Amino acid sequence: MARRKKVYEGKAKILYEGPEPGTLVQYFKDDATAGNGAKKDVIDGKGVLNNRLSEFFMTGLSSIGIPTHFIRRLNMREQLIRHVEIIPLEVIVRNFAAGSMAKRLGMEEGTALPRPIVEFSYKDDALGDPLVPEEYIIAFGWASQQDLDDIVSLALRVNDFLSGVMHGVGIKLVDFKIEIGRIWENDYPRLVVADEISPDSCRLWDIETGAHLDKDVFRRDLGSLSDAYTEVARRLGVLPSNVTHRPKPTLIN
Questions:
Q1: Three-state DSSP class for 128?
Q2: Residue 227 CA to chain centroid, in angstroms?
Q3: Which residues, in sequence order, are bridge partners of residue 31?
Q4: Which of 61, 92, 101, 214 has the most C-beta neighbours closer than 10 Å?
Q5: What is the pLDDT of residues 149-192, one digit of tens each?
Q6: Beta-carbon neighbour count of residue 169 at 10 Å?
Q7: C-beta separation of 14 from 4 below 8 A
Q8: What is the distance between the alpha carbons of residues 73 and 9, in angstroms, rounded to a whole number?
Q9: Pair type for strands 23-28 and 13-17
Q10: What is the pTM of this model?
Q11: Do 229 and 46 touch, CB atoms closer than 8 A?
């Protein structure tokens, strides 16, 4: 089969034209990056794990009525998704102080927050994905006030789902980020959860030991990233039977 046209390549994924109008094929790479690409490595099998984990989470969200761009998994490294108009924001939900928030506010990592806090950052690697207030978002036309209200509602529902799933397997959901896209249905815009949900985009700690099971393992040189992601997949019951690296995607109609 002829290789489909590449639409976009990011740090961890490649998007190709889909087999049907309004669809894309999302290919998960083995690349690991931190510091907006300042630190890089290739972790064999990472893309396979993230593909399966993102499928698990997106399917779970859909089952409770939260709309996503996910259609179905195609193979070990690819999934079919709906083509969406991405809102240029990262939506961050924090349950505990960690990472940049702990640093900004001088808080000890792991401090429980009084309630989940939703933050927005502007998606621009060159600028370091700066935090932006709602006033900026509305003034620059990235999203309307109604969009923001709906995005916060979606993000908190995602948080409830992920927190419950993770707690059930002994993992604390410290924080996570998602992206939101628009799809158009009969000229009416609808917001959906897009991109991916995986240990790349979540901060996950073992409840008993506090061990990191997320990309901080790579950021902070805490051990094997592959082992951490494999442990998350094992606990959730979605561990692939074969986690081998396949550098060239094979697309399936």
A1: coil
A2: 19
A3: 42
A4: 214
A5: 999 999 999 999 999 999 999 999 999 999 999 998 888 899 99
A6: 14
A7: no
A8: 19
A9: antiparallel
A10: 0.91
A11: yes
pLDDT surpasses 60 at 2: no
Instruction: Report the largest interatomic distance among the alpha carbons of the chain, rounded to a whole angstrom.
Output: 54
CB atoms within 10 A of CB 96: 21
Residue 231, Cα to own-chain centre: how many angstroms? 18
Q: Which amino acid is at 70?
A: F
Polymer length of the chain: 253
Q: What mean pLDDT do residues 134-161 have?
A: 98
* Token pair 């978002």 in the structure block, residue: 137
Beta bridge partners of 183: 190
Q: Which two tokens stand for residue 1?
A: 């089969």
Yes or no: say if 225 and 43 are a contact pair by the CB < 8 Å rule: yes
DSSP helix/strand/coil, 155:
helix
- Measured CA to CA, the distance from residue 25 to residue 83 in angstroms comes to 9
Distances (CA, A) of 184 to 63, 90, 108, 114: 21, 21, 43, 37
Closest CA to 94 of 68, 106, 112: 112
Q: Do 6 and 14 contact (CB within 8 A), yes or no?
A: yes
Calculated CA dihedral for residues 163, 59, 19, 250, nearest 10 degrees: 70
The long-range contacts involving 106-109, CB below 8 angstroms and separated by at least 24 positions, are none
Tokens representing residue 227 in the block: 């082992």
Distance CA 173, CA 109 (A): 13
Tokens of 96: 């505990």
